[in-house]
Design a protein that fits this description.
Mean pLDDT: 88
Distance between the termini: 53 Å
Shape: globular
CATH architecture of the largest domain: 3-Layer(aba) Sandwich
Strand order of the largest sheet: 2-3-1-4-5-6-7
CATH superfamily of the largest domain: Pyruvate-ferredoxin oxidoreductase, PFOR, domain III
Oligomer: single chain
Radius of gyration: 21 Å
CATH class of the largest domain: Alpha Beta
Order of helices and strands: EHEEEEEHHHHEEEEHEEHE
Helix content: 10-25%
CATH topology of the largest domain: Pyruvate-ferredoxin Oxidoreductase, domain 3
Number of helices: 7
Length: 306
């Protein structure tokens, strides 16, 4: 290896991207390398996009910036390709690991992008083995298929140690087996893209970040004055990994889902039936859990129903 090898993780809060980066660094150290790992957070709410970074080198690493030109991209949620310029900066010859049931040839990674890619349905593997959609250890297995610095054996040992310390020895062993299963099931091929890369979102300050005395241009929407940072510009419905599907014929109009929704994404209609605002529903599943007649199902993926 010549220069430092840089990895960028794209995921969502709650999927374990940060712990994945830290565990990969642990595995690299086991293989005799120097390594570092660190996160970059936006909104710290479950489902919000998050990035994490890792570097691996034979010599001591002094660079402390974010990773802007990665050699390897690890994408824990394929829907992020539609939200962010995920492949921006990927080096020529760089590789990608993606959580998706699609084969690499079926994946659209953005116009002008082409890379050797490993894919696996990490979400299904995590749900089957861990009973929750935390895909970090599965994706550590997938990334081992497209890089040759860190072995799957070193990754599994690092998982057992780190997860074992935090969650107990059994959790360490189970998560290590999840990594092996994803490694064994991953498909490697050439991925390319046709759609335009998503644009990076403009940073807008929240009310507590604005310096005292700052003047801001007023705006309006439907007659209501708004300013920078409005939720109008940040459609959090893309954060969900599953979408509620409402079965109106089973609904008894008890209103439990309506008053339990933490994001006010359920709209009560004049006849006391419900409608979901899928621009802002984060798919937390509380409505489905609290419904006494099973009138709401959680369907994996980002969907929109009338």
């Amino acid at each position: 290896m010549g220069n430092v090898f840089e990895i960028r993780f794209h995921g969502r809060v709650g999927q374990g991207a940060v712990m994945a980066a830290q565990t990969l660094a642990d595995a690299a150290v086991r293989e005799g390398y120097h390594a570092q790992a660190f996160p970059y957070f936006g909104a710290e709410r479950r489902g919000a996009p998050v990035q994490a970074f890792a570097r691996i080198d034979k010599k001591k690493i002094r660079l402390k910036s974010q990773v802007y030109a990665p050699d390897l991209l690890v994408v824990l949620d394929a829907s992020l390709f539609e939200m962010e310029p995920v492949t921006a900066g990927l080096r020529r010859g760089g590789r990608i690991a993606v959580n998706t049931p699609l084969r690499p040839e079926e994946l659209d990674i953005g116009k002008g992008s082409e890379a050797i890619t490993a894919t696996a349905d990490a979400t299904s593997i995590a749900l089957d083995s861990l009973k929750m959609p935390i895909v970090n250890t599965a994706m550590l297995g997938v990334l081992c298929r497209v890089q040759d610095l860190v072995t799957i054996e070193a990754v599994m040992e690092a998982i057992q140690e780190r997860f074992g310390e935090k969650l107990g020895a059994l959790a360490g062993r189970v998560n290590a087996q999840v990594a092996w299963r994803a490694y064994d099931n991953a498909t490697v091929g050439l991925a390319s893209g046709k759609r335009e890369l998503a644009e990076a979102r403009q940073w807008l300050p929240s009310w507590d970040e604005i310096p005292i005395g700052t003047s801001l241009r007023a705006g309006s929407f439907d007659g209501v004055e708004i300013g920078p940072g409005s939720a109008r510009h940040n459609l959090t419905g893309w954060w969900r990994w599953a979408t509620p599907r409402y079965k109106k014929d089973k609904c008894i109009r008890c209103l439990r889902c309506w008053w339990s929704c933490p994001d006010a994404a359920i709209i009560r209609l004049d006849d006391d039936y419900m409608r979901w605002d899928f621009d802002y529903c984060k798919g937390c599943g509380i409505c489905a859990e609290i419904c006494p007649v099973d009138a709401i199902d959680m369907i994996r993926g980002v969907h929109r129903w009338e």
